[in-house]
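Figure 3 (text version): structure tokens given as input.
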């Protein structure tokens, strides 16, 4: 999820600096008893943001102040024993035109499919991939290691440059970075090897990847063979973990026998990654709400962890509540059947609530968070969100970036 709480400035070198709000947010999650905490987008290019307010790590904005804040962030994330992992990303063609009108794209098809008003994406050459793209990820990974993070996750789910390299639908290159799944994964091979080479040999620094079911669809059909080959390659390349997401059903992996609720392609995609003998840790993220469903996914074999996103914005201590047996399911959410955009924006508003006050061991971690289990309140949120989105769309057409998140005030 995207926090959009960092600095934003017309000067790209002043963008993406963390602050006290981000420290508050992650220190509270740290005391929620999660095994690993993942940041939202940490962008590796100063103008390829997913949105104004993303954290940014690149040579252009590297200062003692930036390093100081990222060190504080890592310390906050690790303050109760969690691993601190930063999700690093380039938004590619999903960058708002108001922020960059010539973002990077891996291919013409990708550019044509996602063409935006006032934007003309630049299709990368092989040389640019090797000399411009890969070094940015390496720089960010090394920076984050030096600031105390335990690892990085390459954001390769939708709304990221890397996802469009991996996607058969979006990547129609005819060189060494396109075509077969092996070639489409070449950039992942080079990222892993170059990041490892930039770090001390005797340290343990996690390198993971977030992927999505839709990257393995072609003509709306799941390519199981490509899923299997991708799993083998990620394992062979030495990736430490894979976060697999992408359910479009109302429940997560093997969540319900009712065919109207499950996404069978998602189940099949996960099966290809879990049934292969592997050294990577496999995390499943998406639509998990009930503790029993989480346990079932783990006991089925091949899956080592469950990722929680939106449930953790409603209850920052949901992991502790489940592990201690205090609750058997996440808090109900009246927006769970709304579009992904509505759900994500609601979670972002809750993130804003969490970030307003420092961690206090005497207070509930859920104190001050808007409760979307209230249907009337959820309805009001949708109405206000539509107004915000119309205003944001108008600003985008005027090339005025919408900075930060929509904060709903009941």
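Below: residues designed for each position.
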């Amino acid at each position: 999820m995207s926090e959009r709480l960092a600095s934003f400035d017309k000067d790209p070198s002043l963008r993406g600096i963390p602050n006290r709000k981000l420290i508050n947010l992650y220190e509270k999650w740290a005391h929620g008893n999660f095994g690993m905490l993942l940041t939202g987008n940490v962008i590796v290019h100063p103008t390829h943001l997913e949105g104004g307010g993303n954290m940014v790590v690149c040579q252009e904005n590297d200062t003692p102040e930036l390093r100081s804040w990222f060190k504080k962030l890592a310390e906050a994330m690790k303050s109760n024993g969690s691993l601190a992992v930063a999700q690093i990303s380039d938004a590619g063609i999903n960058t708002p035109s108001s922020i960059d009108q010539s973002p990077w794209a891996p291919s013409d098809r990708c550019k044509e499919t996602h063409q935006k008003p006032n934007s003309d994406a630049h299709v990368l050459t092989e040389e640019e991939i090797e000399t411009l793209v890969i070094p940015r990820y390496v720089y960010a990974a090394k920076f984050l290691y030096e600031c105390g993070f335990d690892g990085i996750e390459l954001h390769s789910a939708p709304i990221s440059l890397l996802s469009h390299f991996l996607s058969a639908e979006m990547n129609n290159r005819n060189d060494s970075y396109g075509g077969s799944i092996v070639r489409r994964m070449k950039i992942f091979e080079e990222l892993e090897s170059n990041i490892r080479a930039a770090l001390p040999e005797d340290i343990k620094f996690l390198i993971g990847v977030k992927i999505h079911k839709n990257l393995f669809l072609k003509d709306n059909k799941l390519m199981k063979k490509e899923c299997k080959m991708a799993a083998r390659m990620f394992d062979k390349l030495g990736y430490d973990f894979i976060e697999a997401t992408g359910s479009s059903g109302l429940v997560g992996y093997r969540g319900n026998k009712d065919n109207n609720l499950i996404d069978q392609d998602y189940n099949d995609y996960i099966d290809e990654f879990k049934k292969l003998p592997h050294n990577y840790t496999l995390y499943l993220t998406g639509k998990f709400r009930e503790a029993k469903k989480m346990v079932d996914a783990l006991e089925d074999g091949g899956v080592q962890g469950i990722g929680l996103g939106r449930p953790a914005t409603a209850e920052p201590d949901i992991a502790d509540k489940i592990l201690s047996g205090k609750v058997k399911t996440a808090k109900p959410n009246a927006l769970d059947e709304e579009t992904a955009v509505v759900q994500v924006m609601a979670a972002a508003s809750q993130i804003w609530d969490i970030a307003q006050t420092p961690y206090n061991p005497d207070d509930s971690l859920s104190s001050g968070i808007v409760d979307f289990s209230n249907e009337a309140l959820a309805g009001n949120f949708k109405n206000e969100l539509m107004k915000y989105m119309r205003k944001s769309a108008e600003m985008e057409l005027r090339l005025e970036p919408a900075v930060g998140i929509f904060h709903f005030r009941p």
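The two ends are 22 Å apart (CA to CA).
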